[in-house]
Give the backbone structure.
Amino acid sequence: MTIEELNSTLNNLCSLSAENEIVEFKEAKNTYDFSKLGKYFSALSNEANLKGKSFSWLVFGIEDKKHKVVGSQFRSVRKDLDSLKGEIAKKVTNGISFIEIHEINKPEGRVIMFQIPAAPKGIPIAFDGHYYARDGEELTSLNIEKIERIRAQTIKDDWSAVIVSQASIDDLDDDAIALARKNYKNKFPEKADDVDNWDDITFLNKAKVTIKGKITRTALILLGKDESEHFLNPSEVKIRWKLIDNNGFDIDYDIFGLPMILSVEKVFAKIRNIKYRYMQEGTIFPTEVAKYEPFSIREAINNCIAHQDYTKNARINVIEMEDQLIFTNHGSFIPGSVEKVVIDDAPEEFYRNRFLATAMFNLKMVDTAGGGIKKIFNFQKARYFPMPDYDLSSEKVKVSISGKILDMDYARLLAKHKELTLEEIMMLDKVQKKIPITAFEEKHLKSKKLIEGRKPNFFIGLKVAEKTGEKAAYTKNKAFDKKYYLDLILNALKQHKSMSRKEVDDLLWSKLPDWMDENQKKNKVGNLLTELRIESKIHNIGNFKDSKWQLQKQ
């Protein structure tokens, strides 16, 4: 929003005779309780959904009765204000946060406008595990009637469950139906004899692909003939496979359409899942594995199909690189956090395409019990390969699966430390990839002596180094005791009488730990010289720019 638009919006909000369910004013002159702010986030988000609005407003620096500007100094530094987005996301359902936090400087004082998104369809928003709502101007719990009203939106608005009245059983592919029957019998072996006696319509109804014999969008996506794609226009139900080289140039590509149950296997067949060889610790024979676990490939493709937002009219992409596969589908990641899915090992509560997901589960294409993604992580763990990377930005889900060992030291760590939990391995995976870790992750890994170093330059710790043959690497990263550096300077000055700052830097540079960058090393040397000067052990006979250090006469 432009400043003019923000001022106009603020004026309109202030002109209201009273607060309502989607607007809340607070003076917050100096500070405001974070917990209460989170409760209002939940309440205003849920009410915006129920009122059919795209967002709601929480406004600081405005008196709540007469709506006069009183000004707020709440988190006056912009960086602190922006950090609130992450703080809220950690406590809110699916990691949802503010659309934006706007600041307006009025003559009477600073006004902060928190723009809060409406709860997604079918998903009530909780803060710290509790659901909140508004009753007029009052903050209250979200009652069961409102919860059910929001949750019912998923059923009512399930794009994949819509019946396509013009389509018939003749628009479905015979080979696709045959494979669907085979998969269904594998999934439910106790029904195998019954399946053989069902006609196609009975089978499709039982598999929850059709509804009372009527063709749904799900039936067309999974089993439709290629020429039936026009029933789904303008949605483009296609998978594009592309092979690229290390320089990003296209080598080959192909596009696969309906029926998706067959296209998954066609894409799978395109991927060059060749053998990967590496030497394990303590053996002279190489270990040989396929670059990618077949389950992981199929699971990733099927997840793209199940969770694609088909209203975006976009394709699913599978990009094959030399040692990496990338899968992308459009639509936000509804669980919000991959870590939550993997670590909690719990089934998802909500699905964008519930009808489609159920059908794919019945046809043995996806695991809606919540274990599919975790299985991919465990397969990578078993091969000592990096964990999958998830990029959930830009209303897309991008999954990258590596087909090789990124860091042999990390692989040795996994091989020798079977007791590490998957959560700990995910934390260490960030360290090997130089991805920032949270304060909690840092504290946990350091408490178990798995990492050392200073933020953001962490490295594998001594406990691990002693057991994985990484002592040399550890020594390069471990700083010596401060006394060692101080004595080194004093002894050098005794020998050379005087030294410039550059000469002191040259003396210490290679002995400082590798995790330090240039500035950190320069600051470290400067601090050491300052300490010796304050203790009257050395003095500078040059100037600030061209220093010349000598021992202080005692």
Observations:
- DSSP finds 21 helices and 20 strands in the chain.
- The mean pLDDT is 87.
